[in-house]
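Researcher: Here's the sequence for the chain we discussed earlier.
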Amino acid sequence: MEEKTVNIPTPDGQMNAFVAHPSAPGPFPAVVIYMDFWGFREELFDIVRRVAVAGYYCVMPNLYYRQGKVSNAFYDQNGKMISFEALDEERKKIALEPLLMLTNAMVIKDTGVLVEFLHAGEPVRRGIMGSIGYCMGGRHVFCVAGAYPEVFQAGASLHGTNLILDREDSPHHQAHKFRGELYCGFAETDPYASREVIKGLAEIFQRCPHVSYMHEIHKGADHGYALPDRDVFHKVGANRDWELIFAMLQRQCPAYSETIPTKQ
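Model: Thanks. This is the structure I predict for it:
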């Protein structure tokens, strides 16, 4: 497997991104990972690698690049990253500051630049791309599916936040533009995705004929369950997500559409 960090010029500065893809000759279908609000870090790089070994060019942009080097992580005595709700108020404030400076519009603009970069010399197959997002990144999966519906047609939002808001820029307003497939993984206990939100999304997507929507609620899971270094990691729920995500990617943008030749 090949991996690297790249710097992508944008109108607002240099956006760094972590990339991994198979060592075999490309091109490969692309999958974009949208980070959670904790920031750019090794835990997420391992997720990029996990997708890459399945035959994809996987990239995770650092959406906090406008703010300099940002990566917040607080660990418990067992070496697990402490979830937000378990932090004291001072550390909660530190963790939230970068998030409050990032808008959905910024992410949409950055994604447009990222897609141009991928098509300008990287070993990426043109056509449909996948997207996987965690926490705030789950919301960004919705945002890019609405902004670039011809590109992002295999999206996975995992414990996504603020998916339905009483605001003009709420991502659910773009659902009628979505194409392909969308999967949402939810925790049984999540203050950022209530049962009313989950039900509301299901009702919204029933009225969207161009996208196939499915979701699962993982019993016993809490917000943040899908990330392996977290104190609330829910292995069963996370593995079920991966099962459904890779099946969706195989349907929408298969990694190996032709028989791979073997040595004689």
